[in-house]
Specification:
By secondary structure, this protein is an alpha+beta fold. 33% of the residues lie in helices and 17% in strands.
């Protein structure tokens, strides 16, 4: 039976053991799925379905993830609105850093925002 796990020459085909020896790099798809759990507190929609995620880059063999976000201010003429938007944006960014930072192999998360 073919398992998709490389044979190690010792008759060891355990996926868990193979993953210890050959760790997988985090993928863009995994990052996007993690981002789907981050919700905008105003709408309760996730940041992916709100089209706030412009780009996801994986660097340094999966250790570094860079996420480019496109936040829009509701009313730039209203200072209270802008302050609230910055506050909410900060909360969303912090949650993104936590969620994506928990993915296997990820050591740093950088969220770029406009």
């Amino acid at each position: 039976m073919k398992t998709g796990v490389p044979k190690l020459g010792l008759g060891i085909e355990s996926k868990a053991f193979a993953l210890l020896l050959f760790p997988l790099m985090v993928t863009q798809e995994q990052v996007v799925e993690a981002l789907r759990t981050v919700k905008d507190p105003e709408t309760e929609m996730n940041v992916v379905e709100l089209f706030l995620v412009n780009d996801v880059q994986i660097e340094e063999e999966g250790k570094r993830v860079i996420i480019d976000m496109g936040f829009q201010r509701k009313n730039p003429d209203c200072q209270a609105c802008v302050t609230l938007a910055w506050y909410i944006q900060g909360k969303i960014i912090k949650k993104i850093e936590q969620v994506v930072g928990r993915l296997p192999g990820v050591e740093s998360v950088n969220v770029l925002s406009n």
